[in-house]
Amino acid sequence: MAKKRDGGGLSTTQRTARFLGVSVLAGAVLAGIALPAAGALGLAAKGSVEGFDEIPANLKTPPLSQRTTIQDSDGNEIAKVYSRDRTVVSLKNMSPYIQQAIVAIEDARFYQHGAIDVKGILRALNKNAQSGGVSQGASTLTQQYVKNVFVEEAGDDPDKVAQATQQTIGRKVKELKYAIQVEKELGKRKILQNYLNITFFGEQAYGVEAAAQRYFSKHAKDLNLEESALLAGIVQSPSRYDPVNDPQEATRRRNTVLQRMADLKNITQEQADAAAKKPIKLAISRPKNGCITATDGAGFFCDYIRKVFLSDRTFGKNRKARLKRWDQGGLTIRTTLDRQTQKSIQDSIGKHVYEEDPVATAATIVEPGTGKILGMGQSRPYGFRGNQTMLNLSVDHDMGGGAGYQPGSTFKPVIAAAALEQGTSPEQEYPSPYRMPYPSPVQTCDGEWHGSPADVTQNENRKEVGPYAMKEATAKSVNTYFVQLISDMGICPAVKMAQKMGIERADGKPLQQVPSMTLGVQEMSPLTMAAGYAAFANGGEYCSPVAIESITDARGRALKVPQTSCRTAMSKKTADTINTLLKGVVEDGTGKEAGLKGRDSAGKTGTTDSRYAAWFVGYTPNAAGAVWVGDPQHQRKMYNITIGGVPHDKVYGADTPGPIWRDAMTGALAGRPAPALPTVPIDDPDKGKASGDDKGNGKHKPGRGHGGDNKPGGGWHLPGWPDILGGGNGGW
Asked: Exposed, middle or buried: residue 648 (CB in 10 Å: 0-12, 13-18, 19+)?
């Protein structure tokens, strides 16, 4: 009887036998018989009897890295993102042929042995002893699965991957113990399913579903015999047996698998011979990873979704955790993107601005009342080559955009709304001369602003001389009217109104409290302006932009997603009054070229200092959109320029952004309700004043500072502010 050690339990002989029978012999073979027979016997001297028992009992199996799918609002795929292209499927969604083929070539006795295959070990040891080297391995499918778990846990860290695959006895013994646990807990079918989902099949495809899609553009359940044999053969050496780069070697390997299946009676010899005669027929689906592959020009919207995800602690305690979840989580992200709207934006952009043009355009449309971003596009494609860019021209700097662009006169409705909220009548008149100094001093939130006699502004057209009331001044975008309006009201109400409307600088800095802010001198993004104007369409209630409808994880569980935040920015009466003012812009003012047919619309044009940027921002009751045209680098002035094949002496908000907005909104709203914008009656008698140039654009030329739709003069300068912020010429 074997002698027991003190304290009871197994005797030294028994424990040694256990260690030799399970850990030593199998551990050596776990290495794929990476040692000749003599090396395996030497393991007894190197190992320890206690080592096997000291290994933790439970194998930690991290969730398999899977691709994340980004969808539009109807569930259509926009893009896929992943670090490893994998879609986990069950055995019932895998062809029986692939199940038979992988077992036949990787572990023929899989259903007869446990975690280790003693017969396989002895056969391999004998074979390797005869050859004096390593000619045959004996790792079971279960052991291979455990090794793949180690590799999966290592992720993309090369050092951790090296540790997970290093050919050491210690790692192999650890691998063996976990294989025993897995066999006990999962059973054969679950192990086979897990193995086929985790293993690498080459060409960036992890798991059999991704491999079937990559090589044959079909699902794993639809694989036929020869396709299954080909995939099973790849696993041993994905680079050597790659059918894309070496079809001859892949064919030989496939035929080896077929013969093995015949030998095991999975198929008949006739089936194997017939399949072996067939040439490899691939239907390659190239890897489509990342926002660069997004459909309908939605690459920038896709990237915006990524920025939202990575910046929200809801999806992970830190950016690293959130990035891992984005790349590996197998999420399904349903977004707010409306395919009809997105296509209309891109079609309109493509019609009016070419990607090779010296300037670019960006457009964003949101839904009033919900904050949903319905579409986002630009003329410079998403990418790294030629005229492509990774800069999202529609959003703020912290969400992937640039420093923003001066919105010019599109900021004037914010001033008007602030004044109306302060009790100013829309029938308020000002002399509105062609040229005038800025009134001084002007009250700010922190004190008073003081100007100098050199701080002047002027209108675009010398014939534009008041007096004007608010409606006509808005329609003609009269600079001197709005300078007097903000000076009487004070700057603080305008700043607070902008904040309530979500209108902030694209660079994240506070709004500068200067009178020239009424002329749109501070850089903002199209998304910001579209969402702000949506408050006018929504009865005065502002709703923050949102881009994600829902997210489900790989198990189908719903995750919490960011929600819009709505607040009252102004009274409904004020919003309705602004509607009246801005309807006048598109009906008989600077924005006539942007007006929509068959539905109510309102909006405002804007052109900035030295024609560095031109805008149109407008809305209907069910959509608000902003269009910007200009040089993202703030270097190209839009004089004597051809855009979209159309030559311009000067670019105005009316003649380029306006038509882009009109066409984008027309397509976006086609077939959808056309409710009326609520308005209020305003008494604004015709003053018989000049209405601008012969296009009816009513453009105005300021002197000191920007004039919305207009050419600036010298401009007063804020010390220390660079020209890129001042809009050119050092002027505001």
From this structure: middle
The pLDDT tens digits for 697-727 are 333 333 333 333 433 332 333 333 232 222 3
3-state helix, strand, coil in the chain (%, to 5): 40, 15, 45
Q: Please tell me which residue, 215 or 289, carries the higher pLDDT value.
A: 215
Residues 467, 468, 473, 479, CA torsion sign: positive
Q: Looking at residues 565-584, what average pLDDT do you find?
A: 96
Q: CB neighbours of 574 closer than 8 A, spacing ≥ 6?
A: 417, 420, 421, 540
**Distance, C-alpha 479 to centroid of its chain:** 40
Rounded to whole angstroms, how far apart are CA atoms 416 and 424?
A: 9
Rounded distance, CA 619 to CA 617, Å? Answer: 7
Contacts of residue 135, Cβ cutoff 8 Å, sequence gap at least 6 = 127, 128
Amino acid identity, position 61: T
Q: Which of 100-104, 179-183, 416-420, 430-434 has the lowest mean pLDDT?
A: 179-183
> Can you tell me whether residue 676 is helix, strand or coil?
coil
Tens digits of residue pLDDT in 508-522:
999 999 999 999 999
155: left (phi over 0), alpha (psi -120 to 50) or beta: left
pLDDT band at 27, cuts 50/70/90? very low
Contacts of 271 (CB under 8 A, 6+ apart): 225, 262
82-85: long-range pairs with CB below 8 Å, 24+: 82/289, 82/327, 82/328, 83/155, 83/156, 83/327, 83/328, 84/204, 84/206, 84/328, 85/204, 85/205, 85/206, 85/210, 85/214, 85/287, 85/289
Q: pLDDT-derived band of residue 12, with 50, 70 and 90 as boundaries?
A: very low
